[in-house]
Amino acid sequence: RGDLSTSVCQACVTFATTDISQRCPNQTTAVVWYDECLLRYSNQNIFSVVTEEPEVRLRNTQNVTDNQDLFNQQVLSMMNGTANQAANTPEGAKKFATREEDVNFSSTFEALYTLGQCTPDLISMDCNRCLRMVISTLPTGWQGARVLNPSCNVRYEIYPFYNQTGVASPPSPPAPGGNGRRSWPIIVAIVVPITVSILLLLLMCWLLKRRAKKKYDTNGNGHGYDITTIDSLQYDYATIEAATDKFSDANKLGKGGFGEVYKGILSNQQEIAVKKLSRGSGQGDEEFKNEAVLVAKLQHRNLVRLLGFCLEREERILVYEYAPNKSLDYFVFDPAKQGNLDWLRRYKIIEGIARGILYLHEDSRLRIIHRDLKASNILLDEDMNPKISDFGMARIFGVDQTQGTTRRVVGT
Predict the structure, then answer these.
(1) How far apart (Å, rounded) are the C-alpha atoms in residues 61 and 78?
(2) Secondary structure of residue 38 in the 3-state scheme
(3) Contact, 375 vs 327, CB < 8 A?
(4) Does 326 belong to an annotated binding site?
(5) Residue 328 shares a structural domain with residue 180
(6) Same-domain status, 233 and 357
(7) Which DSSP letter does residue 229 get?
(8) 86-118 burial string, b = 16+ CB within 10 Å, else e?
């Protein structure tokens, strides 16, 4: 974090290097956040690339009771200013900024504090774009909140949560002919241990991954599934069965072309949505494999996130994040619910859908055409953010293709 000393940062990274191997075993990609630092590794290039997922949103348990609209306006104004300042720092400086402003409309607090930061490898344009994206999903109306993704993060509070002396003024450049040589031992003492620790961590994860790869021909019939890219996401059938209360009707959310959908609760109290492939449907193993592999690779805050899968007892099951506010059609076509969609919220939903479609069509590694986009396939999370679902019906386009043919009639 830009307001902290080198020693505090080094201590955080040293702890994170050990902690991430325990929290994320067998993973080829991982990221952990702490108050003082972020640590990330991947088997793919992550430098100078904006990575939007995973995104973590946290908020204070206390909401704002005085003039909430004015509060939200000031938060947005301060966050935008903080983003501009962080993104436009001089070359070589930390892409980090904070702001403090007095508040004159509340009797419970007197000031607001904001923070924004990008990873230093991003250019100014990408840093600004990343910060704008996380600001757009920042929970408002609470006494504090933050949004974190691998490339940037923002935060606001009603109390000073950063080191104010550490951001009072930017560091002055070294004088010509000064102590440049003396700084080299310090740099080496910091960089070498961190680099060695990260290399050891990557080696350990690679060895663990090699051991884990051999367990995925689960049918015992010799027909393996090419899903080693998501091998760490496998759930056993007993876990899914327990989470859904043995697929009870009370937990059934609906039925589509893929099969039946159930709500489940894992042992850690995480809510999930479980899609159980119907043997009588027109979809089969090929569609399951397609959806499992591709959706796991598609990471965007406006796409439903695949949490895992199950390939046991001749069952084909996908496990998704659960959307507590159901689907968009639940609000659009119910006169009693339409009032919950004011124009600001509708605009936010439309904007989110457009971002998700743009990602599928232009920005994802594989060009995906949804073909069945409708209100029932737009899920809404707890903050009414839209998430596009049901990619199993999508036709995959190669990167240099503009058209393709289908093998099956698909409803739209």
Answers:
(1) 21
(2) strand
(3) yes
(4) no
(5) no
(6) yes
(7) G
(8) bbebeeeebbbbbbeeebeebeeeeebbbbbbb
- Is 166 in the same domain as 236? no
Burial of 31 (0-12, 13-18, 19+ CB in 10 A): buried
How confident is the model at residue 23, as a pLDDT? 83
Q: Is 372 one of the catalytic residues?
A: yes
Query: How far is residue 1's CA from residue 173's CA, in Å, rounded to a whole number?
Result: 20
Catalytic entry in 3, 372, 381, 390: 372
Structure tokens at 356: 């998700």
Q: In 10 A of CB 317, how many CB atoms?
A: 24
| Domain match, 261 and 176 both | no
Cα 2 from Cα 93, distance rounded (Å) = 9
| Residue 257 contacts residue 281 (beta carbons within 8 Å) | yes
Band of pLDDT at residue 171, cut at 50, 70 and 90: very low
Residues 182 and 242 in one domain: no
Beta pairing partners, 388: 303, 378
In a domain, 213, yes or no: no
Distance CA 408, CA 4 (A): 58
Orientation angle between helical segments 68-87 and 124-136, nearest 10 degrees: 160
Please state the pTM of the whole predicted model: 0.45
Question: Which tens digit of pLDDT belongs to each residue from 24-53?
Answer: 887 888 898 888 889 999 888 888 889 988
Residue 171 burial (CB count, 10 A): 7
Residue 198 lies in a domain: no
